[in-house]
Specification:
The protein has one domain (3-60). It has 2 helices and no strands. It has helices spanning 8-23, 29-68. The protein starts with 7 loop residues before the first helix and ends in a 6-residue tail after the last helix.
Length: 74
């Protein structure tokens, strides 16, 4: 499955698997670069998902503030 198809939790799980395999020396040297590249792609995916989520939450909070005010007038 391509990294762009994974959600955040799946991406983190795969990253954990890769790191564990590398840490335990279970990655043959022939595929080490491939795993490191995969980890980099997953990290970029996670960052992108976090940035998107942050923007969506900020938009919702700004909308609520417009609808309900900041509570200082009460």
């Amino acid at each position: 499955m391509a990294a762009k198809e994974l959600n955040y939790a799946e991406s983190i799980k795969r990253l954990d698997e890769i790191l564990e395999d590398i840490d335990q020396s279970r990655v043959p040297i022939d595929v080490l670069a491939e795993r490191v590249l995969e980890a980099a792609v997953l990290l970029k995916r996670c960052k992108s998902l976090l940035t998107e989520t942050e923007a969506k939450v900020r938009d919702v909070l700004q909308g609520l503030e417009k609808d309900f005010g900041d509570g200082e007038d009460e």
